[in-house]
Design goal:
two-stranded antiparallel ribbon; 42% helix; single chain; Rossmann fold; five-stranded parallel beta sheet; globular; alpha/beta
Length: 243
């Protein structure tokens, strides 16, 4: 056993992810591999701290080049944390944001939200599905099984998406307590671990088919810039925040 209570919780979380979410993660990997094989794009979306998960695979060494992060300063707290929280709860805000991105049938949208209660993520899924986009929700589905949606449809994110990855984190994101106070958030680690496992499995599936992996190299590695620029050029028309 690890000495740190927090590291122990992370270890237990990763074990829960692997044992309970393997089937869902395998389905997600297969979908992503097929999407990229057909020159589709992965779109990622999250608000507040979940926005860091949406940034995880975007324009990053070791990750697919065909990732379009749907970013908004208001939702990412750059206009203030209280403003961001209010926008996440505002129904109708996200469809306008998505209208500025090139979502097409055959693409995939990954949405990250621990609670899955707020309209921003639910609207993102419902809007993408209207365009023929396959949607994958990363959320604490089990912990929020009985939570009440803030969306007029009554749907939670887990109900709206085509496929759900339960991040196995708690309802309030924390994993330890001191007295009656919850501390030590863990949802971001859960999102990143599940996501990168899925992306690795998708890459492995493509590699087994003999397909050259459209994956960025480190810009500090020899030839990295030339390799990355060639990949970026391929997807430039579809990725809003590339340039």
């Amino acid at each position: 056993m690890l000495k740190s209570p927090y590291f122990n919780e992370i270890s237990h979380l990763l074990e829960r992810l692997e044992t309970t979410q393997q089937d869902a993660m395998s389905k997600a990997a297969a979908r992503i591999a097929e999407c990229l094989k057909n020159d589709g794009v992965l779109h990622t979306f999250g608000c507040g701290h979940s926005g860091s998960a949406a940034l995880e695979p975007f324009h990053r060494s070791g990750c697919f080049a065909g990732v379009n992060a749907i970013l908004d300063p208001g939702l990412m707290f750059q206009h203030g944390a209280h403003t961001g929280t209010a926008l996440e709860r505002q129904e109708g805000y996200t469809p306008k944001l998505l209208a500025a991105h090139d979502l097409r049938a055959g693409d995939i949208l990954l949405v990250f939200s621990n609670s899955g209660r707020n309209p921003a993520g639910i609207d993102a899924v419902l809007t993408a599905k209207q365009k023929g986009v396959f949607t994958i929700a990363f959320t604490a589905a089990g912990a929020h099984r009985h939570s009440k949606s803030r969306h007029s449809s009554g749907l939670l994110l887990k109900d709206a998406a085509d496929l759900v990855i339960d991040n196995c984190a708690g309802a309030n994101e924390t994993c330890l307590t001191l007295g009656d106070t919850g501390v030590a958030p863990i949802s971001t680690i859960a999102f990143a671990a599940a996501l990168h496992h899925i992306l690795y499995e998708a890459a492995r599936l493509l590699d087994e088919q003999g397909i050259d992996l459209p994956v960025y190299k480190s810009s500090n590695a020899p030839g990295g810039d030339a390799h990355n620029n060639a990949l970026a050029e391929k997807y430039a028309a579809r990725i809003k925040h590339l340039h």
